[in-house]
From TrEMBL:
Main location: membrane
Positions annotated to bind Mg(2+): D103, D107
PANTHER family: PHOSPHOLIPID-TRANSPORTING ATPASE, PROBABLE PHOSPHOLIPID-TRANSPORTING ATPASE
Protein name, per record: Phospholipid-transporting ATPase
GO cellular component term of the entry, any: plasma membrane
Length: 443
């Protein structure tokens, strides 16, 4: 790795020093642009005294441009304030998410200035840990924090937020459709208790399990395939395409839930005596379809299941029927039209169960078709790894597994392997030149 040292001239006027630093920065940038070796890497080294000039308003953009072009930047003998200023310059200058890691009190400013602060608990006290977002015991744990937990956390939050959009759109629009269907009379198709329990009990716990326990791949696979981490910086799961897709899915589900139930129950005999369904039966059936469709959708979204996810998803559906049973036993002065609605009206009617099954399948069929098409014709990285692990191809074909692991590791211009590759290229070049010169002498 080639070194670029930016130093300041002592015992000179301030303007002379700044002009000299600007000249060094310009020469260094020109040297990087004229470098012919595509594998060449540069390290920028600057001391605290020089950095004080480089961080001034009329010079910091040129310094940032040079720093971005280098593979590594080393700022030595700098103050805590300068560490924070460098972090702010990078964060605001290139608009990227910054991470700062430190283990002492002099790193507190830098940790607080960065988007993500990581503190190391060690011999220098707990000041850095107290000011950080995450705390680790040793620096080597940073790899697992980013590659494993960073990847999981991004996927969990992105899927949880997108599903929340879908869930509330699918439920809320059915209320709007009913208002339009009844001439905006103000009458609600659902009982007040149904709407109260929707986001509190009946659909909240599966969303929490998605945001806490979801894992598209195991931690071992995340470490073996670090390229999976790039799904976060590339924002593959929380872009506008993904958000609008989930919102469109919610719109489609709301249309299916409302109009399919209206078509089924509009002039169809519901009771044994030939009577059609009243509004309370229609509203309860629609709400049952919502509970089934939304919980089955989140089950299809999850890649990793434990007994906790199963308990919360299917327990939420069971809780809905349990609520109907208990609510129907309460005095009619409290339950109103919901009095014994499950025991006497809904449960004995086959059309109620068939409607819930039909609507649930119809709501989730487009998502199943989309994910099947994507996995077959345009799979993402984690889809391929999931398929390999599911069919145990990593055990049957170790050579293929090793090849895929090596392809998942991007080339870098720094580190031990990069230095070895550079040394090999240097020796190969010397041997080629020596061989060429010997041929010329012999000729």
């Amino acid at each position: 790795m080639k070194q670029i040292c930016i130093t300041s001239i002592s015992l000179e006027a301030k303007n002379v020093i700044k002009d000299n630093i600007l000249l060094q920065i310009a020469n260094a940038s020109q040297m990087i642009k004229l470098e012919k070796d595509p594998h060449a890497a540069f390290a920028l080294i600057i001391d605290g005294k020089t950095l004080a000039y480089a961080l001034e308003d009329d010079m910091k953009q040129q310094f940032l441009g040079l720093a971005v072009e280098c593979a590594s930047v080393i700022c030595c003998r700098v103050s805590p304030k300068q560490k924070a200023l460098v972090t702010r310059l990078v964060k605001e200058g290139i608009g990227k998410t910054t991470l700062a890691i430190g283990d002492g009190a002099n790193d507190v400013g830098m940790i607080q200035e960065a988007d993500i602060g990581v503190g190391i608990s060690g011999v220098e006290g707990m000041q850095a840990v107290m000011a950080s977002d995450f705390s680790i015991a040793q620096f080597r744990f940073l790899e697992r924090l980013l590659v494993v937990h960073g990847h999981w956390c991004y996927k969990r939050i992105a899927q949880m937020v997108c599903y929340s959009f879908y869930k509330n759109i699918a439920f809320g629009l059915t209320l709007f459709y009913f208002e339009a269907f009844t001439g905006f009379s103000g009458q609600s198709v659902y009982d007040d208790w149904y709407m109260l329990l929707f986001n509190v009990v009946l659909t909240s716990l599966p969303v929490i399990s998605l945001g806490v326990f979801e894992q598209d791949v195991s931690s071992e696979v995340c470490l073996q395939f670090p390229a999976l981490y790039q799904q976060g910086p590339r924002n593959l799961f929380f872009d506008w395409y993904r958000i609008l897709g989930w919102m469109g899915n919610g719109l489609y589900s709301s249309l299916i839930i409302f109009f399919l139930n209206i078509i089924i129950f509009y002039d169809q005999a519901f009771r044994a005596g030939g009577q059609t369904a009243d509004m309370s039966v229609l509203g309860t059936t629609m709400f049952t379809c919502i509970i089934w469709a939304l919980n089955c959708q989140i089950a299809l979204t999850m890649s990793h299941f434990t007994w906790i996810q199963h308990f919360l998803i299917w327990g939420s559906i069971s809780a809905w029927y349990l609520f109907l049973l208990v609510y129907g036993m309460v005095s009619p002065t409290i339950s109103g039209n919901g009095y014994r609605i499950l025991v006497e009206a809904l449960a004995p009617a086959p059309i109620y169960w068939l409607a819930a099954l039909l609507v649930t399948v119809a709501c989730n069929l487009p998502y199943m078709a989309h994910i099947s098409f994507q996995r077959c014709f345009n799979p993402m990285d984690h889809h391929i790894i999931q398929e390999i692990k599911f069919y145990k191809k990593d055990v049957e074909d170790q050579h293929m597994w090793s090849r895929e692991r090596s392809k998942a590791r991007q080339e870098t211009k720094i580190g031990f392997t990069a230095r070895v590759d550079a040394k090999i290229r240097q020796l190969t070049g010397k041997l080629q030149r020596k061989h060429t010169s010997s041929e010329l002498h012999s000729a």
